[in-house]
Amino acid sequence: MQPWLRRILSFLAYTTAILAVAGLSVWLSVRVTPLQTVSPVGQTVQVGAAAPTLSLSGPGELELFGQVIPTRPRFEGPIRPRLKLTHIALNAQATALTKPGGAQAAGRELSEQLASAWTRYLLWETLIAAGFAALIAAAVAGIRRWGRTGTLWALAVAVAGVCALNALGVYLLASATPAALQQIRGIEDLVGPSTPTPVQAVGIPALPGVQAVVIGDSTAAAIGNAPLDNPTGTDRTCGRSKDAYAVYLAAANNWNTLNLACSGATIRDGLLGPQQRGTTEVPPQISAATKATKASVIIVSIGANDIHWSTLTALCAAADACNDKASTAYFQQQTAAFTADYYDLLGNLAALPQHPRVLINEYYNPFGENVGCLKDQRVTASKAKVLESRLEELNSVLRQGAQTFGFTAVPQHFDGHRLCSDQPFVQGPDANAPLHPNAAGELAIALADQQALTRTSTSPATPTPNSAAQHDR
What we know:
2 domains, Rossmann fold, 5-stranded mixed β-sheet, 14 helices, about 475 residues, alpha/beta
């Protein structure tokens, strides 16, 4: 081999090795560099970097309630921001926003702190990447027995290489990132525009005597159970029952309770926006709840329809396995969309003028160890495990969202009374509303909510004597 060719190949080999060490060091440093925390206007946000990619532009990442979703803004460079919302102090936020020019000042404070945190993170990431490069170079030098001079050269070249790669990937290709972060005036800029203020609930008068409000889906409506004694057209359309947990809570506490839950409701179509049920348009539940100006408790059951839980269950039953790539990707996509909508809902609940105590009900697990009664539906124990894991992921989003906003998440346990047990709390596969709570299940939910209220020492205002559950009329 010609000497000049040998020198070229040697140069390429060393260059490749340096780039490999630098790339590995940057990748490791992004994994371990601590996120930088800022707390502008009551919002605690951690700023870091997403895992590097080969793409030269794309969205960043927002970790919201345990779910990682792409940001709406796009960023240049292979290393892009990762932001994590961990807490919202509602009192501090409200105080800042009510000051003259508060909204604009809050937006400026958030954007400036995000950009500053990004710069601090990159400085730490560069130092840590250089440390990793030095460790790798020292290890190679020790294995090759290069001596002091060779080791020093290896350290110098490795550190210089990682700094050069960082400079190229961050300070040049991603130089516009700080400016892009300075355009972010609120979390809504990351997850998308929030829902406009819900339209007023037409035909519903002010309800100053209502002390507790329930909003949500068919679980809260108690679909499949006994109908209300004197139902309105909306009650029938929404499937509201006299066995709903709202009714049990009203009886136990002598409350006047407004149950606005409606079967099929989602956050967008039901809670924050109107819901079309056949020929009936049901007003947004949040705007109807504002009519209860003295209500000090709001209980929420939502999420199953948003992620199309019934469809996922049906597909799981029909398929040979439930954890295939297609259904898993679909579930993750639906969960990410729900997470963004859930943030919007929590913000609307926090903005209610009566500042109620908010309970977020998690979902019960309907499947027990024995799923023999679902044999005809082709639901096996392994399929039930997959469905349980997805349900727990939904509950994790509900729980972390509630904690972020300072609300109370209420887990639901049907242990010993799940489907196929001797005394199930769940309607069977041949019932009017399969897998939904029966009357005993609704009572169990009411007891869990009652215990949560007792633990937090919160109760509605002075009860109205002999009040019954008030429903949408």
